[in-house]
Amino acid sequence: MLSFFRVQPLLVIPSRPMRVGRLFLAGVQYYATIMDGGSDNFSDAGRKPVSVWYSLLIAAIVLALDYFTGPFIHFPITYILPVAFIAWHNGRIWGLLLAVILPSIRFYFTTLWTVPWGRAESLSNQAIQITVLVVFAIFVDRASRQTKALAEEVKVLRGILPICSFCKKLRTVTGEWHQMEKYISENSEAKFSHSFCPECEKQHYGSFIDKV
Questions:
Q1: Which is it for the CA torsion 19, 152, 158, 165, positive or negative?
Q2: Which residues, listed in sequence order, are joined to residue 7 by a DSSP beta bridge?
């Protein structure tokens, strides 16, 4: 249940716990707080995929550099670049895919190079690289989901809002007048439930309450 009330010049709108914005209504400064219990289930809302080809191009450049620098320079550390890029912009599945493919291609390179270690050591290195990159891709994807979900959900009203001194309607930029509840609901994540304060209870229902 969401409440909307005024205490002195303070307006609190509990709905989603993220940010605090300021409102100026009829020359009075208010604070609007958007609050919520939060959830650990983040969707892909707000995620704008970048073409996978950009990530694959970065991966190809990294692999080419890795091949030409040879087996003794530990270039696979740069595999995190394409994995992070594709996981952030295109999601966990693509990140995990690249996290497996890149070390596998690195293992294939070891069959082309002359190296002083055996296939077992190469397979062990591949398994370690895949494990690290998979965990990294999962964390990057999670951070991306959280960041973009918050950017979608949090809306803060700012600036000076013209308000009627009598009916308390707000004027929009197009010159239309709307009820305060309607305007705030349409321009933020806040929703309203209506009740009445003790003063209005006495004013409108005083005689009925006295009889009861």
A1: negative
A2: 10
